[in-house]
């Protein structure tokens, strides 16, 4: 760390560097002294004086190191901003740069979780241990814990950019508790449950749910779907928009580049779409409507309240939220042996690592014949010893 571990070292022919901790930040400052034995001892005494001033609360960074770029960061006005003030300001700045649903999620976490718990803490004093100790008191799922940390981590990244803190205390770290069940655990519907649910529905509601089971589209994507997104000739539907309650009836572009995609219309999905034409095709606007209002669905919540919950009760099927239709599609495709990369593209993921992690138990394991197709196709004619015997 420095001379004999004392935090003092020569860094050039004309300067000595001292290292000390201030407000949880490791600070390095240079003194314009030739690194002679005498000057190194003077630097050690100066460092000891700095640490004493810090310990007694009288240290003035700008007075001690007036030319340091860190001095402004530790100025009294910079140190006075607490977590509540910073997050409120951060939330306002985010509104113009994220989707309505993302902003609404951030707003709830900031206002209902972070500010009440951590609002009085100075931003510069916020430590990983403080966050961990607070998270440990919450009786919520790991999914909720992850969402809280994601929001705070994003805000603290911006605090680093503003030079309010030197490093993000949550960078490269995530807190989770073992044994907790996620809100979004994969719990697909069996083929029999699917048949029973569809039998309990009729008309537009039945078409919507069958289409959801066989495309894997998110509910927000389903309600934003227009007839102009359907390519009858290629047998595909193009997904480029999503609509949530937070977007106030306005469709927004998908969150990720991979989310903008073309989905192959498998036979059951195509059949549902053709049946839906009788209800909304002539208007050539939204594909699926709320049968009660004959207007586009406003999002996941009205679907759950006015159609989905009732249908599951009538069918006698254990309740799962509508998002499980997406998990059902993925598990069906993987169980049937469809390629994970194809499934990932259908669902709007950029690669299949998430597919393997979330849906791994539905992916068929290798059988005794694994590898024989490649063996037959590529080994013949290469003169490999024993290849003729195996083929």
At the fourth CATH level, what is the homologous superfamily of the largest domain? Intergrase catalytic core
State the helical fraction.
40-55%
Count of distinct structural domains = 3
Could you state the order of secondary-structure elements as H and E?
EEEHHHHHHHHHHHEEEEEHEEHHHHHH
Structural write-up:
The chain is mainly α and 391 residues long. It folds into three domains: 3-65, no CATH class; 83-161; 191-362, hpI Integrase, Chain A, CATH 1.10.443. It has 18 helices and ten strands. The strands form four sheets. A three-stranded antiparallel sheet has the order 1-2-3, covered by helices on one side. A hairpin with a 4-residue loop joins strand 4 and strand 5 (236-239). Helix 6 crosses helix 8 (142-161), helix 9 (191-199) crosses helix 13 and helix 10 (203-215) crosses helix 14. The longest helix is centred in the first third of the chain and has 20 residues, at 37-56. The chain is elongated, with a radius of gyration of 30 Å. The model has no long low-confidence stretch (mean pLDDT 86).
Task: Jot down its keywords.
single chain; mainly alpha; hpI Integrase, Chain A; 10 strands; CB; DNA-binding; DNA recombination
Topology, pairings included?
Blueprint: E1 8-10, E2 16-22, E3 25-31, H1 37-56, H2 61-64, H3 70-73, H4 76-79, H5 83-94, H6 100-118, H7 128-135, H8 142-161, H9 191-199, H10 203-215, H11 219-223, E4 230-231, E5 236-239, E6 241-242, E7 252-253, E8 261-264, H12 267-280, E9 289-290, E10 295-296, H13 300-315, H14 324-335, H15 340-347, H16 353-359, H17 372-379, H18 387-390
Antiparallel strand pairs: 1-2, 2-3, 4-5, 5-8, 6-7, 9-10
Helix pairs in contact: 5-6, 6-8, 9-13, 10-12, 10-14
Protein name: Integrase
Keywords: DNA integration, DNA recombination, DNA-binding
Organism: Phytopseudomonas punonensis
